[in-house]
What we know:
mainly alpha
Amino acid sequence: MNQTNMSLSDPWTESIVSAHSSVIWIWWITLSSFIVQSGFLSYQMRRENLARKSEQQGQQRIWVSPIDAQVIGIMICNLITNLPLPADTSLTCQIAAFIFGNLLQLLILFFTWYRAHLIVNQVMPRSKYPLIFTIILYGGLQILGVGFQTMFSLVRDIESQSYALTVVSGLSYACEAVAFCLESLIVLNYILYLRRARAENSRLHTDRLAIVARYGVASFCCFQLYLIASIGFCFVNAPAVPIVSPTLYTALYCAQQFLPLLYIQIQLGMKWSISSARELSRYAPTVIRVSEFTDFKF
Length: 298
């Protein structure tokens, strides 16, 4: 959960002004990245559709796979989350921005599960339902967080605001802990799968599940950095007076804005590698081991 200290009291003025001075150029970088990544994703989707048409010798159909839809959703949420809002933004817009920030994290966690579920079914099938429960728990905590954030924005007396802010901070920490547990269990599945693939002398550069596992580990590292930045920003926002320098405050703010862009780029790299492995497997089907996907569309 991302939250911003809305108070412009004297102790906070320098830190908040420093962070807000980067909002515009962060927005332009985010928008430029969105355009470039959208173009790359469109090209990749067309490439996959042409490959399907060649394999099936049928009429080409333009469609969006579940992975594509989830990546598009993450990209749109990240774009909306980084929209530069003026200081006098309405309460509705502030709450909407908070909701999209939470939705971004929820989509990333669901995407993490969807991307990994075939590997989980092979490596640790008993962990499937605890993982699903963790995602549901995370969503429930986020809904509570949105409710208390709305209360924090609506109430006027200092005592109630302090209580609501404390609860929102606690829910933020709980969400990050749940996300860490889910991601850690999934990355354990990735590592075990890669070890088994190496033991079986699998060609890791063409085994599509191994490709998912490798990029999954990279995604885990990126997402953990994002969680650290989010927790750090939430922590330094909580006190009545700043506890870090304006430079560090701005660095944490920028990190939690830019790391989702890196996460998206990792997923696009995964799609490219999987498509390349699929094309390579058509030319050497008897030599190269390629995992079969019957219910998983990339």
